[in-house]
Design goal:
Helices cover 71% and strands 0% of the residues. The protein has one domain: Amino acid/polyamine transporter I, CATH 1.20.1740.10. It is built from 16 helices and no strands.
Length: 456
């Protein structure tokens, strides 16, 4: 399925203009840590909430499970594309670097711009809201309290990553291993002690589902798979990133798909479909149906643990892109700062925490996750196009080759465009607001480049 060689890609990119006196980034991340980052970021808190968003579009058990399988396949295809690009450009910045090197610096800038103002910060905000919803299972929190708990989670985990990538990656590995074990125990309990829910037939469950509704369901599922590419942002802090990151992407995406299909089968086994659709804490409701209030409390604690994992991973990844942009003169110079003691990009961590907290205070959960989907997947389509352009370069010798090229990247590009287009068409006004943020980055980029040249 994969092909690794000892050859290195012959790619000429500009070396980052880093001050000699600036501390270097550490490289403590190995294969286990990188795989834990992929799995830990993807298996976030949304899998314990998002099924209700999917089931309202596809109100049948076979339809729901097929949505999760298709979303997993798309994630795998995207991981394969990302794996080859990361082996070709094994340095800090991830998708920003891929777009910049294969398409244009402007395209890379727009990705970083959209990441900060909408997509990446939106993932942090939405995941923190899920974290806070499950904290509310134990504490009497109203809407204001839930938002306060969400902001607190962002600030605490941002501080952990401020202390250094070693602390952040160790926390990520520990949390990921713990929650995968917990999910396995949950599934074992369902198999051993669960009893099937009473099924009620309905017209909705037997009516054919339109292509539009099926794609909208896939879009909602893709949010739970979000973050598979973020391990590439830390390539500059990964040991042998050209080999480690592709392996982590493949192992991680396959592991997550298996977990998601199994978890949703468990939900649908324990609860009627209409109960899953109406639930805001479907995992807790399923556990309560199986083991009463104590089961609901246990699963809520698992979701909180899982949310900590995804928040930590996303908070760890994002600032590395902003650091790369600042190093290349596409963001404020003061963002290039690396903490002299902790060797972390401290200032980019700070601004990310502040803006994500602002989004928590101003957006609803559905607003946040829908904005993330269509913004990210438009850029993912461009990333796939960039791979085709890279393959045409005479001096390019792949270290890793995408399995199924050119069919797999082509299918990934087409699916990305369809997912984004239907998501936008479903709510044009909300989409126009999110896309306006992205488009606004283009004149900002040209002004930035003009000012940079004027200073030289």
């Amino acid at each position: 399925m994969t092909e690794f060689t000892m050859r290195r890609p012959v790619i000429h990119w500009p070396i980052l203009a880093t001050p000699e006196t600036r501390p270097a980034l550490d490289r403590p991340i190995g294969l286990l840590d990188a795989t834990a980052m992929v799995v830990g970021i993807i298996i976030g808190a949304s899998i314990f909430v998002q099924p209700s968003e999917i089931d309202r579009h596809v109100p049948s058990i076979p339809g729901v499970l097929s949505v999760w399988v298709v979303a997993g396949i798309l994630t795998l295809f995207g991981s394969l594309v990302c794996a080859e690009l990361s082996s070709a450009f094994p340095r800090t910045g991830g998708v920003y670097v891929f777009l910049k090197e294969t398409l244009s610096p402007a395209c890379g800038f727009l990705w970083g711009w959209a990441m900060f103002w909408s997509a990446h910060s939106g993932i942090i905000a939405a995941s923190s809201v899920i974290f806070a919803r499950y904290v509310a299972f134990f504490l009497p929190l109203d809407d204001r309290g839930i938002r306060a708990a969400a902001v607190t989670g962002i600030l605490v985990l941002s501080f952990v990553n401020y202390l250094g990538v070693r602390q952040g990656s160790r926390l990520q590995t520990a949390v990921t291993i713990s929650k995968v074990i917990a999910i396995a125990l949950l599934l074992a309990m369902v198999f051993a002690f669960g009893s099937p829910a009473e099924r009620q037939s309905s017209i909705a469950a037997t009516a054919p589902v339109s292509f539009r509704e099926f794609v909208l369901a896939i879009s909602a599922a893709l949010f739970t798979f979000g973050g598979w590419h973020m391990v590439t942002y830390t390539a500059g802090e990964t040991r042998d990133p050209g080999k480690t990151i592709p392996k982590a992407l493949l192992i991680g995406s396959l592991t997550v798909t298996a977990c998601y299909v199994a978890l949703n089968a468990a939900y649908l086994y324990l609860l009627p479909l209409d109960r899953v659709t109406s639930s805001t804490r479907v995992a807790a409701d399923a556990a309560q149906a199986m083991a009463g209030p104590s089961g609901a409390a246990a699963i809520s604690a698992l979701v909180i643990l899982s949310a900590i994992g995804v928040l930590n991973g996303v908070i760890l990844a994002g600032p590395r892109t902003y650091l790369a942009m600042a190093d290349e003169g596409l963001a404020f110079r003061w963002l290039r700062h690396i903490h002299p003691r902790f060797h972390s990009p401290d200032r980019t961590i700070l601004i990310q925490a502040v803006w994500s907290s602002v989004l928590v205070g101003t957006g609803t959960y559905r607003d946040l996750f829908t904005r993330v989907i269509y913004t990210e997947w438009l850029f993912f389509a461009l990333m796939g196009i960039g791979l085709f352009r890279l393959r045409r370069r005479a001096d390019y010798v792949p270290v890793y080759r995408v399995w199924g090229y050119p069919l797999v990247p082509a299918l990934f590009i087409g699916a990305s465009v369809v997912v984004a287009a239907i998501q936008i068409a479903a709510d044009p006004w909300r989409a126009a607001t999110g896309l306006a943020i992205v488009v606004l980055g283009l004149p900002v980029y040209h002004l930035w480049v003009r000012a940079k040249h004027a200073n030289h």
